[in-house]
Amino acid sequence: MRAVTSVEELRRMARRRVPRMFFDYVDGGSWSEKTRWENSADFGQLHLRQRVAIDVSERSTAARMLGNDIRMPVAIAPAGLTGMVHADGEILAARAAQKFGIPYTLSTVAICGLEDLADNVEEPFWFQLYVMRDREFVDGLMDRAASVGCPVLVVTLDLPLSGNRHRDVRNGLSSPPRPTLRNLAELVTKPYWCRAMLGTRRRSFGTLAGHIGNLDDVSALAKWTDGQFDPSLNWSDVKRIRDRWKGKLIIKGILDPEDALRAVECGADAIVVSNHGGRQLDGAVSSISALPAVVSAVGTSVEVHVDGGIQSGQDVFKAIALGAQSTYVGRSMLYGLGAMGEQGVTRVLEIIHDGLHKTMGLCGVVSVDEIGPHNLVFGEVETRIRQALPAAE
Ligand SMILES: Cc1cc2nc3c(=O)[nH]c(=O)nc-3n(C[C@H](O)[C@H](O)[C@H](O)COP(=O)(O)O)c2cc1C
């Protein structure tokens, strides 16, 4: 097979292999998808500062996240329905991440359940919690996560209700796909996906099974989500979660410095600067552009992580340069998974690792701790040129 050299290639391969409704669920954003696309486009606006003649023969991408040694400053973001992108997707992605030496986060609305994943992987993983209306159930989820050995809970705050995702509505997103003529006709063109899916029993929300009715056919995901998730979610809930959860706590979905400070007050160990991959508030700023203000607001009181639009080692380097302790990948992982299962996720991680390792070398940096704003070049091209020219007579 031809060597795959970029996440974009895996995205195209996933588009060919995964049924449209699930590819679009991954690929799309909310409303006009402006924020979804700006997340990655804004990385493209940043320039790296090339340095030469510095001995970079011994470089390391090793980093730390909440006290854990990791191979590079990247973790896998929680993603609902991962097991619909590829059969047993959560297990495959978690194995790829663990073999690579980075954390995997399981979503509340994953296809593979908490206990099921714990039985099928070698190492502990992180659990992402949505605060649902039934708070007793939410407490039970935390207890279950603790009892399968999750060391970290990631509480997502940016989905008190669903953003309108037009592609999902158009495609009639359901899990599993309804046997309409259109869906059946499409499935014939996706033999790779079908073959794997026929070999698994995991086709509905594993962690939620048995607790919430009508799970066999979540025919309108957004409607279902709005029925289960709680728009009254507020900081007192976060405090309550902090009191109950004994492990490390990450608050995800922060874009505003004031919210970041509230999360710190509530006892978070880390926050994730995130707009949910542009799937919630369309028109919100990109995560990378929101990062510096959050970093300066919280200082060193908590770790600041970021996600949204990361597709390469250069993107990771830029995020670290702007003050992130670490990053997460959502879609990049899902494209790899849809394209080639576990092997595809591994390939994504290799591409990002290789890009980061080489970018460090070309910027004259040998360790992740050394990366900072001094590794970036700021300003519009014309302004930079004008400033560099001798002053006009
Ligand atoms: C298909 C998909 C499903 C997602 N499901 C969840 C979820 O269940 N819980 C959550 O906190 N975030 C979820 N997210 C958001 C991701 O955790 C992450 O914030 C986002 O994907 C980062 O942007 P990126 O995809 O550009 O890397 C999801 C994202 C995608 C693409």
How would you describe what is shown here?
By secondary structure, the protein is of the alpha/beta class. The chain has a single domain, classed as Aldolase class I (TIM Barrel, Alpha-Beta Barrel). It has 17 helices and twelve strands. It has helices at 7-17, 20-27, 34-45, 82-85, 89-100, 114-120, 135-147, 166-171, 181-187, 191-198, 221-228, 235-244, 257-265, 287-298, 313-321, 331-362, 381-388, and strands at residues 47-48, 63-65, 68-70, 74-76, 105-106, 126-130, 152-156, 248-254, 270-273, 303-307, 326-329, 376-377. The strands form three sheets. The protein has an eight-stranded parallel beta sheet with strand order 4-11-10-9-8-7-6-5. Helix 5 packs parallel to helix 16 (331-362) and helix 13 (257-265) packs across helix 14 (287-298). 49% of the residues are buried. The model has no long low-confidence stretch (mean pLDDT 95). The protein binds flavin mononucleotide. Flavin mononucleotide is lined by residues 25-26, 39, 77-80, 107, 109, 128, 156, 252, 274, 276-277, 279, 307-310, 329-332, 334.
CATH H-level superfamily: Aldolase class I
Q: Taking strands numbered 1, 2, ... along the chain, how are they ordered across the largest sheet?
A: 4-11-10-9-8-7-6-5
Number of helices: 17
In what range is the share of β-strand residues? Answer: 5-15%
Report how far the terminal alpha carbons are from each other: 61 Å
User: How many discrete structural domains?
Assistant: 1
The CATH architecture term is Alpha-Beta Barrel
Instruction: Report the count of strand segments.
Output: 12
Stretches where pLDDT is under 50 for at least 5 consecutive residues are none
